[in-house]
Design goal:
The chain is mostly beta strands and about 140 residues long. It has 2 helices and 9 strands, in the order αβββββββββα.
């Protein structure tokens, strides 16, 4: 017992806190394509101390992950939906999504990762293809 008190005091003095943040997803995150967008859907059965979710993605052309959006936490059993409309600008064939929980104490936790094959469904017209139509 004599050792526990100094350790707890040291943790409190250095800014460390004991936190009990917790998020439990209900099943897996779903990713579907709708037109030229990717739509992510998820639901959590437990959301303790969470402020928001962050959605990150990377593609074969952009191998470094970046935040593409945030969704405010609404409570357990809420059906979340996020539309990644940025993806239509990419010509990548694969996209990796990460779903992060951001807690009120600013801690972060990676909840899940999903890899999807992506085939653009819209016609991309470059200047060269537009000129070719009129030749």
């Amino acid at each position: 017992m004599k050792r526990v008190v100094p350790i707890i005091t040291l943790l409190l003095l250095t800014g460390w806190t004991l936190s009990f943040n917790r998020v439990l997803l209900k099943g897996e995150i779903e990713v579907d394509s709708e037109d030229s967008d990717m739509v992510l859907r998820w639901e959590a059965t437990v959301e303790e101390g969470i402020e928001k979710y962050e959605i990150w993605h990377k593609t074969s052309l952009m191998p470094r992950s970046s935040v593409v959006g945030e969704v405010e936490a609404r409570g357990p059993n809420y059906p979340y939906r996020f539309v990644d409309s940025y993806l239509f600008k990419a010509t990548a064939e694969q996209v990796d999504y990460e779903l992060w929980a951001v807690f009120e104490n600013r801690e972060r936790e990676l909840l899940t990762q999903v890899t999807m094959n992506y085939t653009p469904t819209t016609v991309r017209r470059t200047w060269g293809s537009i000129k070719a139509m009129f030749q």
